[in-house]
Amino acid sequence: MKSGTKENPRHILGLSGGKDSTALAIHLKRTRPDIFDKLEFYFTDTGTKLDELYDYLEVLERYLGRPIYKIKADVGEDKKIGYKAETVEDKSVPFDDVLFNKYNGFLPAPNARWCTRDLKIIPMEKWIGDDHCISYVGIRFDEPSRDGYKSRSKNVNITAVYPFREDGIVISDVYRILEESVGIPPYYRWKTRSGCYFCFYQRRVEYAILYYLYPDLFTESKKYETEHSDGRRFTWVKDKPLEYIEENAKDIIIRYVKKQFKKAKDTYREGFKLKFDQMIELIEQEKIEEFINTWDLKRLHDVDGENKDGCDVCAI
Ligand code: SF4
Predict the structure, then answer these.
(1) Choice from 201, 234, 309, 313 to test ligand 1 binding pocket (greatest atom count within 8 A of CB)
(2) Which residue, judged by its Cα, is nearest atom 6 of ligand 1?
(3) At what angle do helices 19-31 and 171-179 cross, to 10 degrees?
């Protein structure tokens, strides 16, 4: 029977590289093999993610034993957004195509978030076409007020379902599922969410760590701030060019660690691998990788609870 009809819809699961969508794919493999067999996995690829994320998706692909479609935006001459869907990664950077060919270098921002729409939602909806689909979304039981993707187009026949909510899965279950299978995404050692390496939803400390871990990508991020044909200058962090982060990277990390450590209750601090002075010493010595490999920076991020700022499409 043809799939994509009302009677026989397609089953899709969008992976962002985030913990929840990854754990959901694994959970469905374990608990709903009949659905798992029909699932089409996809990842909407801006071409501007960390290699750590692409590597993690490969690990997941092997674990699932199924391909993950990489859906990329494709800008036509009329500036309309189309898509490409491949199971192998190519090196094209749709973010750049859309930024320069459609938005004349105008960087996305929280109040002008064209990136999610043009690079993720529209290409995914074009990939679906007018097929009927059931979309499996990794929103958990302990997130009653969180919303996933909702189409604004009347022509899209996608129904979202929430297996974690149905099964009472909460955040600790998600970490357990990951620890038992593919591991926690390694970028969570230092990032509060998955997404593009320059994403404006990052905290300053994440840009500062990017500067140490991926100097080339930091330089690329800076170029976006300066390369504009009309001479205007946009910045990722409001009123703070990345040069400021670069010049103050160590201090930014130290200030953040002090602030978060102060907020942490004594019982919580017992979970840290390092003592406060040891953290500061490593940062002073610019042994940033050694510091984040303890996962203490994640523990410090988690003092604030989960980071739910920004865009669920990019981070669930
Ligand atoms: S991760 Fe950030 S920059 Fe990238 S598409 Fe999502 S919101 Fe935009």
Answers:
(1) 201
(2) 314
(3) 70
